[in-house]
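user: At home tonight, take the chain set out below, taking as long as you need, and be ready to discuss the fold:
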Amino acid sequence: MKLLRHGLFDLNPRRKIHTERIGEGQHHLVIIDDLFAHPRDIVGLMADLHYTDDEQVRQAAPGYRCVMNFPNRDDIYREVFELHYKVYKINLLSEYGTNRPSFDHYYDQSPIIKATSCPPHIDVTVDSSYAFVIYMNERNVHGGTQFLRHATLGRETSTGTDEVFDQGTTIRPATPWDYLPSEWQRYHLAPMRFNRLISYRNNVLHSMYSDGSFYRNTPRKTIVSNF
């Protein structure tokens, strides 16, 4: 039996926090750099985890996934929630553990990438208001998270029941994250950086960004959650 080392997921007391407002909707984006105190050790742990391609576990996300709670996650939820509160005034923080963090490995051109997993999406789940992604690539850093506006409707958010967003997106298999400008307009790219967290309202339309070739042989490593 292996035990997690005590303090593995400690937060860095010198982490750097800043916020931005993006898009026509002035959506609140939280960025925390140098989040973890021991990020390289967490990367080592991620290499030893067991991942699955099961669609129910990864919820159609185009990457291999391991779902696992970890110490100090509540500290992250609380800190980011309070930063968003200044803008959105949402009082209810969903029950800790309801949406467990996911450790993801994504590869360009992976056989589990399907056209249905590539269009811009939202991260709305029951009783959650926000989402975060933590980038864990120290090397092979490329792309990030792109935020998109529907070219025809001019919409940057979705309720999750808007059928129009599930239709009419042209996916080019070689570059699935490059959308036709006539369909989707990228208005912001949050660049990947090692040990960086970004968080946003989970009804904002977005997707990962990769050029379709950079991560063919090495994974894009992230930790994601809703809260």
About this structure: DSSP finds three helices and ten strands in the chain. Residues 201 and 227 are 10 Å apart (CA to CA). The radius of gyration is 17 Å. The chain has a mean pLDDT of 92.
